[in-house]
């Protein structure tokens, strides 16, 4: 069935793979990833790739994935020494899955690489790749032929070969495999850190199979009738682990659409769930938000099969999710299907899951109290509206894992006391690839990982309130930059872009809280209007002096997973690289009519 | 549709860009789509999607990442139509 001719070896399959395995479900009780694929290959399930309109492009049964991965592995064994790093453009495609698993059979370490995502974004994308390659020490990069030019020009100064997916079949083939053992590495993930200083998170066979066991057995409780649907990028932990590796290690069928197709046609995501009776799917809050924004009520959907609508990857924002439920309830979407969860790439992917059927367990607290005493106390009728803030509980920690919430002095805190979230267990990564300083800063010798997040316990469930490193301390108060940013965006009288708040200049009280707000206009009158409305709202809602600066679009810096990088924006601001739209230029050219 | 001229494609793009140009600035081939017009990253995808649907073409992300101006977008569509 397999030939050495390349694309022709793809089987033409007109139907997506089945939901039922035809065999018993195994929840990642494997020692290695390839052992997991060996078992999945005996089942009827697999990966299905759809286009932006929901039409099947390719069905890849696990049986065929295994055959193709082994064929490629026999070529890779000859191509690269054991444990060499192989960068792979993380395109949602059969070739990506095949190469990733070929590396497992060939004893190589795959590093999924991000893809260009914006209009005119090629320059910054190339710089990002360059930085990854600088520290990644790649033996080679694999990418579709269409990306070869971009890849090669990014790697200009480095002696790293770029191989097109299409040319793999022409590589010389050997007759032996060199599979990873249970104590070997599994991959390097670039999910963490800003785009400017990407950190490669190491995954081992042990950490990845352990986390997948927690996800599939305990977090999701996968059964034979489950079917997954995903638009998440493969260079992000939620896409790679949550919707490729964990499904393979639990023999679950997945229906994919490409993340770019999702951004253009988000409703296709829901269409796939409806068409194929999907039961499990995840997204950060904004994915649900985008569906509401684009919904045109132009078709019938049946979302009643969707039993776990996961939310992860960013802060869970209750309002857009409630909107989503309101919009899609009549199409069978169940509010109890919402499944908030928490995790980070440093623990492979997942750490906590809300219990089945819980939905959004909301907790509205008094932020004024929170900022003064670091306690999460329920807001009452007497709490002024502007001091109320609603968080969502992200569930309980996975078995075999522990979470502690600690004060800044290191004391372990109890219920409703806010502190830093620490985590320990078999899913925790051994650290960052060739970055001892960053590894020591987060991974303690006793096995505890400092997640960098802040949170508190609510009825034994974790509530995450934000990233610790972005926290602004002002006159003994803890100020959340998100609060300032959200208030600004809500108050702006004209549509504004991203907002970013941070403290600048010195320690203690000389510190200035800055707020940058992207504006789409340069009209001085409109800018003045925005300036006064936002300044007034911030004073009212946050109650601290904030210096507002209106900036042009594209001032903000976001990470590859779309999160705002406040530290990088602050750096840009402090080095004078941010343009102030209201700056009255002192050297104005006198116009002719003023003469 | 395959016979669409550069001018027709340009006119179509201008029409699709109208909602993002509230001040009615003149759109030229040199106009930067993100830098000169009020097109954010989500709106870009709306625009790309509408062009794809209208001309029944598929613009890849590698191509999108290389497009900064209206003129470059016109060329990209034209090339795909001549495919």
Question: What does this protein structure show overall?
Answer:
- The complex is a heterodimer of chains A (595) and B (83).
- Chain A is of the alpha/beta class.
- Chain A has three domains: 13-257, ANL, N-terminal domain (Rossmann fold, 3-Layer(aba) Sandwich), CATH 3.40.50.12780; 361-469, Luciferase, domain 3, CATH 2.30.38; 472-574, ANL, C-terminal domain (GMP Synthetase, Chain A, domain 3, 2-Layer Sandwich).
- In chain A, 30% of the residues lie in helices and 23% in strands.
- In chain A, the strands form seven sheets. In chain A, strands 2-1-10-9-11-12-13-14-17 form a nine-stranded mixed β-sheet, with helices on both faces. In chain A, strands 4-3-5-6 form a four-stranded parallel β-sheet, sandwiched between helices.
- In chain A, helix 2 packs across helix 3.
- The relative contact order of chain A is 0.08.
- With 83 residues, chain B is an all-alpha fold.
- Chain B has a single domain (6-82), classed as Non-ribosomal Peptide Synthetase Peptidyl Carrier Protein, Chain A (Orthogonal Bundle), CATH 1.10.1200.
- Chain B is 53% helix and 0% strand.
- Chain B has four helices and no strands.
- The radius of gyration of chain B is 12 Å and the shape is globular.
- Chain A binds chain B through residues 115-122, 125, 146-147, 150, 260, 263-265, 290, 497, 520-521, 523, 553-554, and chain B through 23, 32-35, 38-42, 44-46, 48-49, 52, 60-62, 64-68.
């Amino acid at each position: 069935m397999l030939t050495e001719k390349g694309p022709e070896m793809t089987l033409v399959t007109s139907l997506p793979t089945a939901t039922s395995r035809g065999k018993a479900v195994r929840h990642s009780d494997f020692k290695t990833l390839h052992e997991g694929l060996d078992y999945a290959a005996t089942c009827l399930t697999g990966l299905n790739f759809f286009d932006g309109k929901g039409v099947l492009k390719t069905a890849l049964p696990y049986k065929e994935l295994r055959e193709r991965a082994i064929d490629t592995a026999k070529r890779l064994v000859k191509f690269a020494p054991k444990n060499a790093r192989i960068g792979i453009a993380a395109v949602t495609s059969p070739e990506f899955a095949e190469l990733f698993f070929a590396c497992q059979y060939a004893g190589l370490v795959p590093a999924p690489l991000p893809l260009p995502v914006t209009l005119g974004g090629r320059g910054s994308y190339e710089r990002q790749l360059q930085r990854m390659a600088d520290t990644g020490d790649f033996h080679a990069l694999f990418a579709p032929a269409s990306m070869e030019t971009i890849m090669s020009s990014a790697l200009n100064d480095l002696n790293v070969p770029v191989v097109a997916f299409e040319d793999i079949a022409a590589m010389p083939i050997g007759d032996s495999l060199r599979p990873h053992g249970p104590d070997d590495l599994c991959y390097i993930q670039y999910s963490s850190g800003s785009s400017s200083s990407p950190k490669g998170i190491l995954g081992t066979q042990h950490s990845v199979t352990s986390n997948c066991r927690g996800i599939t057995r305990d977090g999701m409780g996968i059964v034979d009738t489950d079917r997954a649907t995903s638009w998440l990028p493969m260079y992000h932990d939620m896409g790679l682990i949550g919707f490729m590796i964990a499904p393979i290690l639990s023999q679950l069928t997945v229906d994919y659409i490409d993340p770019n197709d999702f951004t253009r046609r988000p409703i296709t995501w829901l269409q796939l769930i409806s068409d194929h009776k999907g039961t499990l799917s995840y997204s950060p809050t904004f994915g649900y938000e985008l569906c509401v924004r684009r919904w045109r009520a132009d078709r019938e959907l049946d979302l009643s099969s969707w039993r776990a609508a996961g939310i992860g990857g960013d802060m869970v924002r209750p309002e857009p999710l409630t909107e989503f439920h309101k919009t899609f309830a009549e199409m069978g979407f169940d509010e109890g299907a919402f499944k908030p969860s928490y995790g980070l790439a440093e623990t492979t992917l997942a750490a906590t899951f809300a219990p089945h059927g819980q939905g959004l367990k909301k907790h509205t607290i008094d932020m004024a109290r929170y900022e003064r005493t670091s306690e999460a106390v329920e807001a009452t009728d007497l709490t002024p509206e502007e001091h109320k803030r609603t968080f969502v509980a992200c569930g309980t920690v996975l078995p075999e894992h522990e979470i502690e919430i600690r004060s800044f002095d290191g004391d372990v805190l109890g219920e409703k006391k806010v502190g830093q979230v620490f985590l320990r267990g078999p899913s925790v990564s051994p650290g960052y690839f060739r970055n001892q300083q960053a590894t020591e800063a987060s991974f303690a010798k006793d096995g505890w990982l400092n997640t960098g997040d802040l949170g508190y316990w609510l009825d034994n469930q974790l509530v995450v309130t934000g990233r610790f490193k972005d926290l602004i301390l002002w006159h003994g108060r803890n100020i959340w930059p998100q609060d300032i940013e959200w208030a600004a965006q809500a108050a702006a009288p004209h549509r504004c872009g991203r907002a970013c708040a941070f403290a600048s200049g010195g320690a203690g009280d000389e510190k200035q809280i800055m707020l940058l707000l992207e504006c789409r206009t340069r009209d001085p009158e409109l800018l003045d209007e925005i300036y006064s409305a936002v300044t007034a709202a911030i004073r009212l809602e946050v109650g601290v002096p904030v210096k507002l600066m209106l900036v042009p679009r594209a001032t903000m810096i976001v990470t590859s997973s779309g999160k705002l990088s406040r530290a990088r924006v602050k750096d840009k601001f402090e080095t004078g690289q941010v343009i102030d739209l209201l700056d009255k230029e002192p050297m104005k050219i006198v116009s002719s009519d003023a003469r | 549709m395959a016979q669409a001229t550069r001018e027709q494609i340009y006119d179509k793009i201008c029409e699709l860009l109208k909602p993002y140009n509230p001040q009615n600035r003149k759109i030229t081939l040199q106009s930067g789509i993100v830098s000169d017009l009020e097109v954010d990253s989500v709106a870009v995808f709306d625009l790309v999607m509408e062009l794809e649907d209208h001309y029944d073409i598929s613009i890849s992300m590698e191509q999108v990442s290389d497009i900064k101006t209206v003129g470059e977008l016109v060329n990209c569509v034209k090339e795909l139509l001549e495919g």
